[in-house]
Design goal:
Blueprint lengths: L2 H13 L5 H10 L11 H11 L8 H13 L3 H13 L8 H11 L4 H19 L2 H8 L4 H8 L11 H10 L6 H14 L4 H9 L6 H15 L1
Helix pairs in contact: 1-3, 1-4, 3-5, 4-5, 4-6, 5-7, 6-7, 7-9, 8-9, 9-11, 10-11, 11-13, 12-13
């Protein structure tokens, strides 16, 4: 069995016995019926997958991407989470082409905020920090797809002082007029992150932009309020 098939098989075998129908129904409702659930808690999922993958060899970048795609293609949501868990576990194996080859399909396959944000944290942010494919982020930003836009806005999540503040705020500016909830939320979170190390830039940004994007403003001000209390 090749690495991709073996990894997917190990993942299914690890999570399926942990099924909890009552928990699954609650998660399905909470996530707006985007996908069915098995009913596994996040700590149990991560523990089971870590054990399942412990004996696996290191994958190539292509094997990692293909396995993530196959997990995302399974019906239950926990396997979609397993896709970004897998990328996080083997992140150093991803090469400079990984985002261009695999990211768009992973982000837009059964998308909702949970998988998109998980993929941003596990894949987009760390690989962008290593490879800086700004043209790809600009492509996503201009795609008209709310999930790719959300990923683009959050592409420097967790960079802290390494954040290119001008770059992130210019992307927030480009989408400021779009008050669609998930995009506005991404803008607000990006600014809230910046308040941790450059609150003055966020204050200046807010004074220069109209107050119509209330969701983004609320999230940004939460960050500003945190540093003044």
């Amino acid at each position: 069995m090749n690495w991709v098939d073996s990894t997917v098989d190990h993942s299914v075998r690890a999570l399926s016995p942990l099924a909890d129908p009552e928990r699954a129904d609650g998660s399905y409702s909470y996530m707006k019926q985007v996908a069915p659930f098995i009913g596994v808690t996040a700590p149990d999922r991560r523990r089971a997958l870590r054990n399942a993958w412990a004996q696996q060899d290191l994958p190539t970048s292509a094997e990692l991407g293909e396995a993530a795609r196959e997990l995302m293609a399974l019906p239950e949501r926990e396997f979609h989470y397993a896709a970004y868990d897998l990328i996080a576990a083997y992140n150093r194996q991803a090469d400079e082409d990984f985002l261009r080859v695999f990211a768009r399909s992973l982000i837009t396959m059964t998308p909702w905020w949970d998988t998109v944000d998980g993929l941003v944290n596990a894949m987009v942010s760390p690989l962008m920090k290593r490879f800086h494919d700004d043209a790809l982020i600009d492509e996503w930003s201009g795609s008209g797809d709310r999930w790719l836009t959300r990923a683009a806005i959050g592409h420097q999540r967790g960079w802290k002082q390494d954040t290119d503040v001008e770059r992130v705020l210019s992307m927030c500016d480009a989408h400021w007029a779009d008050t669609e909830f998930f995009i506005a939320k991404a803008i607000g979170w990006a600014m809230r992150d910046i308040t941790r190390f450059d609150p003055d830039s966020v204050r200046e940004f807010l004074t220069e932009h109209d107050p119509d994007n209330r969701v983004a403003i609320r999230e940004a001000r939460r960050g500003l309020d945190r540093i003044t209390t």
